[in-house]
Please model this.
Amino acid sequence: MQNDCGQTATQSNPLHVYVATLQSQLRDRNAELAALTKKSEAMSQAQAEAIVRSAEIIDELERTKQRLSEARSAAEEAARDTQRLADTIFEKTHDGVMVFHKGICIASNDNALTLLRSDRSKMIGEWPQAFDLASFDDGSSARESLRQLIGDEFDEIGSSLEVCLSNQERQIFWAEVSVSRFSMKDADHLLVVVRDITARKQFEAELKRHRDFLDNIINAVPDQLAVTTTAQRLVVANDAYCVANKVERGEILGAELSRDELFSLTPEIEQQINGGVCESIEETRPLHRDGKRTMSVMRSMFQDRYSGENYVVATARDITEDRAREDRLRILASVFNSASEGVAILSSDGRVEEANPAFLSMLMTEGPEATSTRPEVAAIGKPLISILKIETNDFDAVMRQVENGKPWSGKGFLRQGDTNRSYWISLSQSFETHECAGRVILLVSDITELEYTQRKLRRQAMYDNLTGMPNRRYFRERLQQLIDSGLDGGLDGGQHLAVCFIDLDDFKHVNDSAGHEAGDQLLQAVSARIQQVTPEDAFVARFGGDEFAMILSGLDRDTLEGCLNRLIDCFQKPFELNGTEATVGLSIGATRAPEDAQLVDALMCNADIAMYAAKLAGKNRIRFFEPKMQAEVDLRHHVQSKLRQAIASGGLKLWYQPKVCAASGNTVGCEALVRWCSDEGQFIPPSEFIPIAEQTGLINQLGNVVFQLAAQQASRWHAEGINPSIAVNVSAHQMRNPRFVEHLMLMLEQAGAKAEWFELEITEHAMMDDTEYAASMIDKLSSVGFRVAIDDFGTGFSSLSYLKDFRIQTLKIDLSFVHDMIRSPQSNAVVRSIISLGRGLGLTVVAEGVETMEQASLLSEAGCTLMQGYYFAKPMPPEEYAKWLRATSSGKQMNTVTS
Model:
């Protein structure tokens, strides 16, 4: 209703409403205008104030800018002053200055370049080369120490080093390298200063040299030296003092001397020193463990002019030896006077100044002078050459030689009655004291009896006692004399010298059969016959045993050979020995100088080689040395050396050759044959090395190895069921060993073998050398179970009567007869005779070397028991022999033993 009324009123008065609206809007506008006016006024006021404030700020900024500009100018000027000061210090300092960053030099002054003799281009951005060449006092390199000092891990502790630097020009100087850290551009840098301290080092070295010089002087004093204060505190002690007291210098300096110390001061000594008295005091006291020693102590006092303090200098000398020397001199004087040898003191011109009684007694002669003149009167003051006849042409030269320090010895003579006495004179320079300078000591010994004894001993040493002929030693000496004189007189000018070695053939048989006494008589007769036949100027000697030698001069080859042939011919005549005759032959080896050699050893060696060749060629032979003989000897030595190695290293093997029954054709055993394969794989025939083994004494070792190998193989075959019937060769050298059987039994025991498995083949020659010994040895072998065979039967000179005395089981026909029995009726007859003889004695007869069916048939027909040779099988290794046995046993009686 109200709305309607109002609407009605309004609608009834619209102008009034419009005016009211405008009024209301006008009021609002006026209010807004008043507010805007007020705001505008406020803004104007604020703007005015802002303008004023801005003006003030701008003015203040201008003043601040002016102040900053002035401050900056001042700072820049200060910085320039600081830079000029740093540059002045950096460049003008006498030291070398460098700046390092991360181990690289980034700045350097000129002094551093000058000291290190380097260019700036080579210094900046690099590590200085001179630092790599730096060294310490002891010469060791300082490179790593400098790198550590100037490195990134720089430590302020120990920030300097003293090193020896050398620049690019190899100029060396001492430098102190110091380092300090500083910050620049927010980074740590190192300032390195190199200061030349060469002058300081030289001064220190000179100071040390002077100090060491003084120390050396003090320590060079051989006496004990000590310096003490008046309060008896030790301030100086030399090495002799420390050694004598067994102390270290550092432990005793400053210490107070004890009252029992050698250098301690008693009131009496102090009073003497203060009074200027310096006397030597001898004290005898025990020193450590050396026992009682006599010491001479001297003291003196001096005042230090700087400190005014008094010091005592004391020296102590051990005079124990001096006192002992004085005692010794008294003893020597007693010895001088009581010596049995003559002693005299001579002046430089050879006059006798003093002589002992023994020397004077030598001058006592018979006759008027002896009774009227005392010996000392006749000798003292007289020239020595007027007293003794001395064996020298220039006695003055001898005295000069002795004065120069070279002793002289010689013989002197003095006639006493009807005899001449010989003296040995020795002259030597006297070094005892200064007063004796130029004097000569004379020693005189009577050697008359000694010379007689020496002549007698020389005779014994240079001659053979049995024959009276020169011996080997005299022979060598004489040969050397002839060579020396020949070289001087012309060995090369056609003057020939022959050396001959002579060995008696069959002497041993004579010696063994007739006895040693008869052998000595034979040697005496032989030496006499050689001297009778050879030229008068021949030098004949006996070396020992049945060996002789002689030297012949001036003979050409034909004349020499004729002379030696006559010598051999004359020995065809038997020697009469106590009613029996003995015949010996000669084997002679000769060599000539200068054609073959000119040295004693070479000539004797050549003659020995030639004599050996003569013996190998047979009896009664002459052989002249030829170079090829030496080659043969060298070969023997080489084979001997290699064989010795082969024996020691197991280089020898055994091969086995079957022995076949002539009647059945069955294999009944084998012979062990040694084989030697060299390092080069070449088999060396037994005929080459077995004779050398016999000549060099290796045959015993070789025989032992062969039997040992055979015993081991026999044991293995027995274990395999094979009949171990093995023939093994035995040498005469083995037979001569008294313990031969004992050695064989020991090897059998070690191998687990039996003596019954073996037949030992001994040559006929070995048995006939000494039949009694051979029979005894064969008995021993048979008694322990060995079978014994005579090998090479028919080649020796044995008496058939010996066969019945030897306990042998087998005769083995030498292969030379087997080879010739087809074409030689004589050999055929010998073979048949040996077979018949063996069968008659109940012996097994073995024929070796059967190579053809015809030989086998004839031997079988003649009744030979066993045969062996290439016709049946060659020697073969043990494995092949076992296979061969199995193959040949097929279809026949098996050659085995049952267990």
Observations:
- The radius of gyration is 61 Å.
- The first helix runs from residue 2 to 12.
- Residues 365 and 371 are 9 Å apart (CA to CA).
- Confidence is low (pLDDT under 50) at residues 1-12, 366-372, 891-899.
